[in-house]
């Protein structure tokens, strides 16, 4: 497996969680469960991605800006999660804040999958792609 496949699997999981969470309502156990699952998934993903995808790509002029942009978006996602953490599940504004988070996460995932992966594929050789995937997956397992 290459690093792109490993990251894409997590992206698909994040999309599914966001969609399921958007279908919840009020102060329910289901909303609480999906939200905690999403927070954990996003946090683990950000740590692993920054270590085993962005960091190695910071050394190339072709991908340094993409890496910096991705890290900046992780921080924006963290701020949106903090806003949700400070809002009661039953608050009518909670779903609006979730929509902002969903839009930001989906934008971030699309940026990576539609452009960054292609540039990174030109920078990393085959063995690096495979090795980074192994390290990324190991980090994800440890985070969970």
Automatic annotation (TrEMBL):
Pfam name, any one: Hemerythrin
Gene3D superfamilies according to UniProt: nmb1532 protein domain like (1.20.120.520)
Hemerythrin-like domain residues: 4-119
Superkingdom: Bacteria
PANTHER family, per the entry: HHE DOMAIN PROTEIN (AFU_ORTHOLOGUE AFUA_4G00730)
Official protein name in the record: Hemerythrin-like domain-containing protein
């Amino acid at each position: 497996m290459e690093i792109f496949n490993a990251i894409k699997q997590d992206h698909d999981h994040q999309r599914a969680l966001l969609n399921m969470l958007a279908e919840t309502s009020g102060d329910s156990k289901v909303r609480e469960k999906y939200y905690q699952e999403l927070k954990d998934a996003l946090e683990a993903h950000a740590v692993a991605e920054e270590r085993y995808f962005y960091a190695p790509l910071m050394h190339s002029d072709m991908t340094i800006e993409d890496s910096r942009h991705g890290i900046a978006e992780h921080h924006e996602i963290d701020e949106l999660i903090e806003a949700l953490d400070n809002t009661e599940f039953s608050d009518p504004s909670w779903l609006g804040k979730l929509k902002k988070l969903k839009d930001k996460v989906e934008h971030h995932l699309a940026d990576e999958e539609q452009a960054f992966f292609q540039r990174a594929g030109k920078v990393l050789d085959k063995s690096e792609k495979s090795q980074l995937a192994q390290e990324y997956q190991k980090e994800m397992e440890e985070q969970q």
